[in-house]
C-alpha cells in the first residue's frame, strides 16, 4: 500500500531531484564564467527524467538493471535496489556549443546560462507546486469524513 | 540534496570574484607607486581561477590558485627632476593599465552579482521545498 503511494509521487520527486541537479550544473557554469578553459555543461532533461523514472520503476519491481542492491543481513530484510546517485545511475553531462568562444577557452555564455537558470528555477517551483497538491489530495483522501 | 551544494558553488565564486576585486583595487591604488619595499616599482597582479571540482565530478565551484605578477616591462616616464630618474632622466613606473583594471573591476562586480542571484534563487527554492505538502 505504502509503495503505491511512493510510486504515485515518484514521477514528480524524480523530476524535482533532476531539476535540483540541473540547477547545480547551471550554478557551476555561472560560477566558472571567468575560469580559463572551463567548458559550459548541461544535460538533456527529458532523457535524464526518462532514465530516472525507468530506473526507479525497475528498482521497485525488483528488476536487476540499474541502482545498487540493498544489503540484507537478516532473514527478515526485504531485498531491493535503490538509486546509486541522486538521479539513479548518474547523468551524462554534455557540452554546450558556444556561440562565440573566448580566447581563454571558456565557453560560458552568461545570457544563455542566466535564462536556463531562471527557466529551471520556474520548473522547479512548478514541480514543487504539483507535488505539494498531490500530497494534499492524498492527505484529504485519508482524512475521516466530518 | 543538490540545492545545498549550490551554496558551496556560488559561495566559492563569490570568494574568487572578491579576491579578483581586491587585486584590481590594489593595482589601481598602486598605479603610480614608483618604489615598493624592494625599491622596484609596483608590478600589476592578476588572480588565477581554476575549476574546483569534487573527485569524480565534472562541475564545481571556483578556486583561486594564486596571484601572479604581470611580466610586462615597466612603463618609462620622462621626469628628469625626480630623484629616482636614471641617467637619461627616465623613471620606471608600474606596468599597470588603469583601463584594464577598471574593466576587470566591472567584470568581477557583474560576476559577483550573478552569483548572488544564483544564491537567492537557490535559497528560495530550498525554503519552498521545506514547506512541501503544507
Tell me what the structure shows.
The complex is a heterodimer of chains A (146) and B (134). Chain A has 146 residues and is mainly alpha-helical. Chain A has one domain (2-71, 80-142). Helix content of chain A is 54%, strand content 5%. Chain A has helices at 2-31, 45-60, 110-142; strands spanning 41-42, 68-69, 81-82, 94-95. In chain A, helix 1 (2-31) runs antiparallel to helix 2 (45-60). The mean pLDDT of chain A is 82. Chain B is of the alpha+beta class and 134 residues long. Chain B contains 2 helices and 4 strands. Chain B has helices spanning 2-29, 98-130, and strands spanning 45-53, 60-69, 75-78, 90-93. In chain B, the strands form 2 sheets. Chain B has a two-stranded antiparallel sheet with strand order 1-2. In chain B, strands 3-4 form a two-stranded antiparallel ribbon. The two termini of chain B are 20 Å apart. The chains are: A mainly alpha (146), B alpha+beta (134). The A-B interface holds A 16-17, 20-21, 23-25, 27-38, 41, 86, 93, 110, 114, 117-118, 121, 124-125, 128, 131-132, 135-136, 139 and B 1-3, 5-6, 9-10, 12-13, 16-17, 20, 48-51, 58-62, 107-108, 111, 114-115, 117-118, 121-122, 124-125, 128-129, 132-134.
Count of alpha and pi helical runs of chain B:
2
The arrangement of helices and strands of chain A along the chain is: HEHEEEH
What summary fits the major beta sheet of chain A? 2 strands, antiparallel
Oligomer kind:
heterodimer
* Average pLDDT number of chain A: 82
What is the number of strand segments of chain A?
A: 4
Question: Low-confidence parts of chain A, pLDDT < 50 over ≥5 residues?
Answer: none
Strand content of chain B: 15-25%
Number of helices, counting only DSSP H or I runs of 4 residues or more of chain A: 3
Question: What profile does the largest beta sheet of chain B have?
Answer: 2 strands, antiparallel
The rounded Rg of chain B comes to: 21 Å
Number of beta-strand segments of chain B: 4
Given the C-alpha coordinates, what overall shape of chain B results?
Answer: elongated
State the secondary-structure class of chain B. Answer: alpha+beta
Proportion of helical residues of chain A: 40-55%
Low-confidence stretches of chain B: none
Distance between the termini of chain B: 20 Å
Amino acid at each position: 500500500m505504502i509503495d503505491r503511494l511512493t510510486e504515485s509521487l515518484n514521477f514528480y520527486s524524480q523530476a524535482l531531484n533532476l531539476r535540483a541537479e540541473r540547477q547545480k550544473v547551471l550554478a557551476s557554469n555561472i560560477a566558472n564564467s571567468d575560469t580559463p578553459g572551463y567548458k559550459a555543461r548541461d544535460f538533456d532533461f527529458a532523457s535524464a527524467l526518462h532514465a530516472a523514472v525507468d530506473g526507479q520503476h525497475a528498482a521497485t519491481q525488483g528488476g536487476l538493471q540499474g541502482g545498487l542492491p540493498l544489503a540484507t543481513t537478516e532473514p527478515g530484510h526485504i531485498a531491493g535496489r535503490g538509486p546509486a546517485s541522486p538521479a539513479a545511475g548518474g547523468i551524462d553531462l554534455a557540452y554546450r556549443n558556444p556561440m562565440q568562444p573566448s580566447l581563454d577557452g571558456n565557453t560560458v555564455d552568461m545570457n544563455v546560462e542566466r535564462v536556463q537558470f531562471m527557466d529551471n528555477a520556474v520548473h522547479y517551483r512548478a514541480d514543487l507546486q504539483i507535488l505539494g497538491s498531490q500530497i494534499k489530495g492524498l492527505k484529504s483522501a485519508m482524512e475521516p469524513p466530518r | 540534496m543538490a540545492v545545498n551544494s549550490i551554496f558551496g558553488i556560488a559561495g566559492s565564486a563569490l570568494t574568487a570574484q572578491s579576491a579578483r576585486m581586491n587585486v584590481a583595487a590594489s593595482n589601481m591604488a598602486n598605479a603610480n607607486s614608483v618604489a615598493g619595499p624592494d625599491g622596484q616599482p609596483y608590478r600589476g597582479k592578476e588572480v588565477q581561477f581554476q575549476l574546483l571540482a569534487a573527485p569524480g565530478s565534472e562541475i564545481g565551484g571556483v578556486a583561486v590558485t594564486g596571484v601572479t605578477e604581470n611580466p610586462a616591462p615597466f612603463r618609462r616616464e620622462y621626469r628628469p627632476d625626480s630623484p629616482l630618474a636614471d641617467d637619461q632622466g627616465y623613471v620606471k613606473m608600474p606596468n599597470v593599465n588603469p583601463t584594464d583594471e577598471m574593466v576587470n573591476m566591472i567584470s568581477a562586480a557583474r560576476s559577483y552579482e550573478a552569483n548572488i542571484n544564483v544564491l537567492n534563487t537557490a535559497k528560495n527554492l530550498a525554503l519552498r521545498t521545506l514547506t512541501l505538502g503544507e
